Amino acid sequence: MSRNDDIIEIEQLLAKYAVTMTKGDTEGVVSVFTPGGTYSAFGEVYPLDQFPTLVSAAPKGLFMTGTPLVDFGVDGTATGTQPLCFIDHTQQDIRIGYYNDTYVHTDDGWRLRTRAMTFIRRNGEHNSGRPHAISLSGE
Description:
Layout: H1 3-23, H2 26-31, E1 33-41, E2 44-47, H3 51-57, E3 61-65, E4 69-72, E5 77-88, E6 94-106, E7 109-120, E8 126-127
Parallel strand pairs: 1-7
Antiparallel strand pairs: 1-2, 3-5, 4-5, 5-6, 6-7, 7-8
């Protein structure tokens, strides 16, 4: 597989993430991660088994992502950054920021190992946001 093939495969993986998040397809979102994958935002790290609750609690709308900048390791891993513009469907409110990712090449192709959200605030700050308003521990 050439490096260009790898880049296209990662871009398609990330497109699947954005489209399945937009459609509210939790199974599709989970499928782009490795079995031990995690998502980080709001000061928390969420393991894959918490994704259904996390995705259902997330605001609904359009996830518009840009082309990722990918840096390949030598051992079937890569890191990347992908810009995001999310538009809430109820108020048309916009959230902007970027994902910092790690990828791993598996028997099923490239998958996300970790995805961490950084929001860009109106005051210019870049941060992961305030703690999430939902409980994922069942408390």
